[in-house]
Amino acid sequence: MSPGPGPPPAGLPPPCQYTRPSDPTHPADDLTGFSTPGSGRGILDVFRYRYLLRLLIRKGTQTRYHGSVLGWTWSYVKPAAQFGIFYVVMGVFLGLDRGIDNFPIYLFSGIIVINLFNEAFGNATKSIVNNKALVKKIYLPRELFPVADVFIAFVHFLPQLAILLTVLLVVGWAPTVVQVAGAVLAVLIVLAFALGLGLLFGSMNVSFRDSQNFVEIILMFATWTSPVLYPFVLVRDQLPGWLFDVYMANPLTVAVELFHSAFWFSTTPETMERPEHLWLLAGIAIVVVSGFIAVGQIVFRRLEGRFAQDL
């Protein structure tokens, strides 16, 4: 057997030994102020990273038309061209221009709501994949990316709203405070609805790219399942009562009708039929949207750990 370690040679200090301090005022494992890497509070962390959020929004808005000759003019050209096509087909060919007073205002006020939802939802779905370089290299709340894309869609919505307001001021628009509040609520409903769906499908799209194709189908139906190109009374007269109630509980339907209430009703005679209990429907839409945000956040948090690996 080999001899055990003996005393240190003469002239050398004894080996250094660490002793845990016994002073209770200086605990050895005090981790106050530290957090586990990669953990967070979900979408609530977006408020802690406001500076990064502003950078992402600025980058998205500045690079949208990078290298384009017309630049931000496209934000006016695209909705105007879309409006022209729908107006000719639905208003002139199908005669809705004769059945709905001020049909151009009715049509355009609905189009810009759907455009806001389509851009916000579509971009949020692709936000994680489009930012895979950042996702794979550093930690930051991944919810920043879909939230930033929703805000970017709102910025691009403003030129379309400016066109509508310009036309309304020319024709003598005189809304009430309640109607304007309804329009603001409609925008919030659309943005929150797009964010909830964006969290859900954006997280799934990282591992299952079929999700993006499924979203494109949803966006295609969004225009036709809301009273944008036709009045809601046509749906009411064709569907059974319970199915019509489901149709009216659709957050997009509520948002479109709130926009009609703010921008179209005030320019039409009182004889034009309005949806009943619109503010009650708005409350139902808020509940539905809140549910989608909760489900989207849960699915997002469950799949978040696989983002870097799947990308």
From TrEMBL:
Keywords: Cell inner membrane, Cell membrane, Membrane, Transmembrane, Transmembrane helix, Transport. It is a multi-pass membrane protein. InterPro entries: ABC2_TM, ABC2_TM_bact-type. Residues 1-36 are annotated as: Disordered. Its main location: membrane. The chain crosses the membrane at residues 80-96, 103-121, 150-173, 180-202, 214-235, 247-266, 278-300. Residues 1-16 have a biased composition (Pro residues). It is found in: Cell inner membrane; Cell membrane. It holds the Pfam family ABC2_membrane. Residues 70-303 form the ABC transmembrane type-2 domain. Belongs to the ABC-2 integral membrane protein family. This is Transport permease protein. It comes from Agromyces marinus.
